[in-house]
Every structure is written in structure tokens, then in C-alpha cells.
Queue: 2 jobs
Job 1
Amino acid sequence: MDDDDLFSWRPPRARNSDPDTSHLAAASVSDEMADAHYAILLGAIHRHGPGTMYDIKDQCSLDIQQVNKRLPEMERRGWLCRPGWSTAGPTGRQCKIWYECKRDCQYRKLPSSHRLCDLPVPYDGD
């Protein structure tokens, strides 16, 4: 997909197996709103670097539900990747760390079941 066609593919926002309420909620999200969310999230990650969904939420104007919904959509588009590292979130549970996926990132070139990434191990603050 080239840069001119960046926002043309639309990921499904609800699965066939989801309840009717999920389909109603998905239908209420306009493409323009999702595009705005993508731009906000990419900007936050680009400016502040990799982070968990909570870290990313703290760096932008979106709420945690919006962030949590858009990040996997952006991963399916090849804009973000989760190489497998995690860190404790605010509840103490492990959260995956999201990275901006560059064009030349090895993570993008492998099938999802075999993804390994040459991204650096994140700094844990110690």
C-alpha cells in the first residue's frame, strides 16, 4: 500500500460473532473519526516513542477504549507492531508495548505467526 492510499482500506470494526450492540457501536464510528484517531495515535507514538496502550493514552487526547480499539486496527494496516515485549500496566497486569512500524522493519516482512523484530529492547526505567 503506498502513502497516497494510506487510509483507503477499512478494517472491520466488529466481528460477525459480535453481539448486535457491537455492530451498532461500530456503525456509529465514521471513517473520518477513525482516521483522526489514527493520526493522533501515530503522532503520539512518533513523538514519545513506544509504549503500552496506557502510556499512549497518556500522551494523547483519546480515552483508553478508543486507544485500545484503534491500536490493533493500525497493526493490521502495518503501521504499528508488537514485537512481544511487555511491561506492567497500572493494574499490575502485563501490557504489550506498541512500536511505530517503519517501512523497513523486519517485523512487517514476516508472516504473523513467525514475527521477530530487530527493534531494541525497551528501557524499563531502572
Job 2
Amino acid sequence: MTASAIHSITAACALAARAAVTAGATTARAITARVVTTGAVAAAAAVVACCPPALAQGKLPAADPGKGQQIVGGVCSACHGGDGNSTVNQFPKIAGQPTEYIVKQLTDLAKPANDKSARVNAVMGAFAATLSADDRRNVAAYLSAQKPKPGVARVKETLDLGQRIFRAGIPERGVPACAGCHGPAGAGIPIQYPRLSGQWAEYTTSQLVAFRDGTRRNQLAMTQIGARLSDPEMKAVADYVAGLH
């Protein structure tokens, strides 16, 4: 896939995500139609792929954060903390993540490992498989409402490199700016792009490596981008976003 195709996919997904959240599926479909008429077929396909069916139909039932809190307290808190602010760098901070993103990840984790769109993780897959669709929405509603605790950048020597990748990407290698999809403050965009601000650098690095190595494959654009980053670049941008707020 070319660099221009990656840019088209990420831009189209971001546009469709915003449209689906702010104006409903009709606007999202209109954006998709415009993408098709301009010839960006790959980007249009990505829009369809990145919008869960329930959201595309505009029929998501109301979630119950109280029930979500009960599930988090009984199952998730051991690793992620009772409010989604993990205190261990191998477990991600999930407080304040976009609701739709949490639902998508839990859905992908519950899929069979041989599903090409699955997010394969033995521990999380077992937990996610026990949750109903309503449970996932309830958990997401609770976690997304929690206040994320800030992190810190720890490696002064790589801050400039990390900031450059986050803000401008690496154009000569087809790496788009992280801010283009994750937002200028790293707050994330619903459905596809998580909150990065304050995330453990070690966890962010591990996910970039997983995308590059193909052990995480539930986001096409990140698979392509991960393959174009070196280990030092991954660590630099991960450390930078840890201190972003």
C-alpha cells in the first residue's frame, strides 16, 4: 500500500468517525460517497470497515455506566485500576478512552484468533469473550467518563524526535503525523484511534511493535505505519506522547 493510500485511509476514517458521532450515519455515508466519486476506493472501503454495524445503523442502545463500573470493579481493576488508570506500565491506561474505541477493542478481542480482524491476546480475549454487547457498551461508558491521570516523558534526548514524528510524521517514508488521527493533544478520535496522551510509553511501544510484527492486526493503517518505524523512533514517539497533555 502506498503512502498516499495510507493518508487517504486515515483521513477518511477520521472524517467518517466524526460524522457518525456528530451527525449520524447519513452524513458518514455521504462522506463515503464523496470519497468514492473522487476515486479513493481504498479509503472508502476503510470507512466501511472502521464503522461498527450498530453505529452505522444509528441504533446503539443506551449504556449503563453503573453496570459498567460493577464489571470493571470485579474483573478489570486488577490490571487496569478501578477507574481505568493502570499503575503498571505493561497494562494500558484506559480511563478517558473514546467509548466507541473501547467497544471496538473489546469486540475485536472477543473474535476467534483465526479471524483476520481479531485482536489476539490470550488474557484479554478470555475476558472479552464473557462480555455481551451490552456489557461492552456499559464498560466503555464507565471508563470513558473517568479522568485519565497524566503521564510524563522521561527521555530528554529523544523529545525532539518524538515531537517531530507526532506533529509532522516522516514524509519521506510515508509515515503520517500521529496528530492527524489521534488529535493534536493526543485525545483520540472515536472508533479507530485511541487516546495516547499520558499513556505508558512502554505500552505504546509494545503496540507499535505488535503492529509492525503482525501480532496485532486490527487496524490496517497502523500495521502499515508500524512497518515504517525503527525501534528508536517508536520509543521516541511513545515517550513523547506519555508526557502529552
